[in-house]
Amino acid sequence: MTGLQVRAVLAERDVDMEFGIAAGEVLAILGPNGAGKSTALHVISGLVRPDRGYVRLGDRVLTDTDAGVFVPTYDRRVGLLLQDPLLFPHMTVAANVAFSPRLRRRGKAGARQAAQHWLAEVDAEQFVDRKPRQLSGGQAQRVAIARALAGAPDVLLLDEPMAGLDVAAAAAIRALLRRVLTSEGRAAVLVTHDVLDVLTLADRVMVIEAGRIAEIGAAAQVLTAPRSAFGARIAGVNLINGSLEVGGVLRTESGTRWHGVPAEGGEFLAVGQRAVAVFPPAAVAVFREQPHGSPRNMVEVVVAELDSRGAAIRVRAGSQADGAPGLAADITPEAAAELRVVAGMRLWLAVKAQEVAIHPVFSDSG
Predict the structure, then answer these.
(1) Alpha carbon 222 to its chain's center
(2) Domain with CATH 2.40.50.100 in the chain
(3) What's the confidence (pLDDT) of residue 182?
(4) Which pLDDT value is given to residue 366?
(5) Which end of the chain, N or C, is surrounded by fewer C-beta atoms within 10 Å?
(6) Alpha helical stretches, state H, 185-243
(7) Residue pair 216/228 in contact by the 8 Å Cβ criterion
(8) Phi first, then psi: what are they for 40, rounded to 5°?
(9) Distance of CA 329 to CAs 237, 323, 333, 339, 349, Å?
(10) Could you read off the pLDDT of 2-27 as tens digits, one per residue?
(11) CATH, domain range 4-234
(12) Which fold does the domain 238-360 belong to in CATH?
């Protein structure tokens, strides 16, 4: 396994950042459009040469502007996966995946074996003789993942890999990437706008704003207690920290218990495992008195603020006991008027268990 160290200064793009990724770690990069997220990937891959800086992959120096070192992209042992699979249209699926190992001079037999292995790993071996135009978006992205990994890269760069996919395909790709990254133990960088990508794949999160690192830390930490404007915006879901009890119940540090379902149809983690419960504000019902009925998750809160969200009113409670942002509920203006919601009043929030997805929380080291 190989760690990565990056320093990149690009005057024209007003980018100045420095960060590292440990061997076996997944770093998610978040930020608004034009902040410098893709620039970071392009510097690592060698598609962009910084004015000043370096890229070190283990004991290999790929870029060092002071020493005049710049290894070309094809010789960096870096796998790049974009939101557009960019498969070669004139090649079959098998030939597309074999291209990278052949570029690494593994020979026809070795390249063919690598292609067969990785197509089986991504559950796409049935497409070997198809051309890219005969694949769905999800199928093409699976093939692109196989191609990125077939060359045995030391680091994997993922640029919005789930963008444009439907919900089912995105969930399958997430599960596949999590399995591959966990088993292979290579460093990876994930540029995304989707909080579920972060929750399911990332160890740490780095938020970039205006070409600078605004914050960096454990994924759960950044999403629950962001210290940057964009971190706060992307944390638009309700997210609760805790650890698992028997039956998949999430217990918070304050003792509150939340019932939910395993994220993306997976299995619950071991008892004591750190996890987060995630649910959208639209799934939260609001009551003046404690409700009785089907919702299994109920909590009494004090309203901190109200905010107009188009056709909905967002009711947000005060901060959670661990300092995380307060729970939010989106209700209609009619409901807000009927409840006579104002800041400072006490309300009950209720969420059905099937609306609450429980996600694993990965290592927060580094």
Answers:
(1) 12
(2) 238-360
(3) 76
(4) 38
(5) N
(6) 195-201, 219-224, 229-234
(7) no
(8) -60, -45
(9) 10, 18, 12, 13, 8
(10) 789 999 999 999 999 999 999 889 99
(11) 3.40.50.300
(12) OB fold (Dihydrolipoamide Acetyltransferase, E2P) (2.40.50)
